[in-house]
Amino acid sequence: MNRSKARELAFKLLYQVEIQKEINEEDIKIFFENNEINSKEVKEYITDIINGINEYSKEIIGQISKNLKEDWEIERISKINLALLKLAIYEIIYKKLPYKVVINEVVELAKKYGEETSHYFINGILASVVKEA
Fold it and tell me: What is the pLDDT along the chain (133 residues), one digit of tens a residue?
């Protein structure tokens, strides 16, 4: 499984977390089983994403909030867009992955799973985050 597909699966699990508001080891294990994820590397990657976003949650939410337009509140962001933003910000800032690759893939996921204009919104927020970083 390539990194793009693993990133998409990580997004799906993050979206689940956004809906449920919490996740435990059993939930992750069930997710791996339901998605037939057997690769140790992919399991480690997804687990790192979940744990890292949880660890840096306040900082990541802060990055999103400060890059919203003045009249926007974080509560207005759809769960899909929020999961995608958290994933991208964690990978760009904390994992130091190439921002162009991360942004491109997250924007493609937004086109696939988000609303009609989600990819513009996400691209704009992430462009601001990258400029600051």
Answer: 788 899 999 999 999 988 888 888 888 999 999 999 999 999 999 999 999 999 999 999 999 999 887 777 888 899 999 999 999 999 999 999 999 999 999 999 999 999 999 999 999 999 999 988 7
Domain with 105, as residue range(s), is: 3-132
Q: What single string gives the DSSP state of each residue in 32-96?
A: HHHTT---HHHHHHHHHHHHHHHHTHHHHHHHHHHTS-TT--GGGS-HHHHHHHHHHHIIIIIS-
State how many domains the chain has.
1
- Is 129 within 8 Å of 65 (Cβ atoms)? no
CATH assignment of the domain containing 87? 1.10.940.10
